[in-house]
Design brief:
The protein has 142 residues and is of the alpha+beta class. Helices cover 15% and strands 18% of the residues. It has 3 helices and 7 strands. The chain has a 3-stranded antiparallel sheet with strand order 3-4-5, with no helix packed on it. It has a two-stranded antiparallel sheet with strand order 1-2. The protein has a two-stranded antiparallel ribbon with strand order 6-7.
């Protein structure tokens, strides 16, 4: 499995945390779809759309935030559920901007479902999932 190019990821992030835009004093490369204990055979696990450059360690900075508040992390696209594909699932930064990672590029997109509150929605990770069900308030659940 080909390893990611750390320098290319840091360049994509413009030498800043992709979640809070802070500096990268202590930097981590975070897997949005986590590697399973013992590794994984998923070919795209180390590809740029599945990776975020973030500040901190697993207990500090944005990396600590992601690990400590997992429900929020899934809502913001910082973590991906099994079956969600990284290249089709945007993530939100702490300013409320939504981004789609395509190769080593980061594209800005409108907020999924035109919601004014990114913390209240599910990421658009419908690829690989079937039969979305519509709730009364026009939200989709999978």
């Amino acid at each position: 499995m080909k390893e990611f190019n750390r320098d290319a990821l840091i360049e994509r992030a413009e030498n800043r945390c992709e979640v809070c835009y802070g500096g990268l004093g202590v930097m981590s490369v975070h897997h949005r779809r986590p590697r399973a204990m013992g590794g994984t055979k998923v070919a795209w696990i180390n590809q740029p759309p599945n990776l975020l450059v973030i500040c901190g360690t697993g207990t500090s900075g944005c990396h600590g935030l992601i690990e400590s508040y997992r429900a929020r992390s899934y809502e913001h696209g910082w973590l991906l559920h099994y079956g969600w594909l990284a290249e089709f699932t945007p993530f939100a930064d702490l300013s409320g901007n939504w981004w789609l990672l395509v190769g080593n590029k980061k594209l800005t997109i409108t907020t999924p479902f035109d919601s004014p509150n990114p913390s209240s929605i599910q990421p658009v990770g419908s690829v690989g999932l079937t039969n979305p069900k519509k709730k009364e308030n026009d939200e989709f659940i999978y």
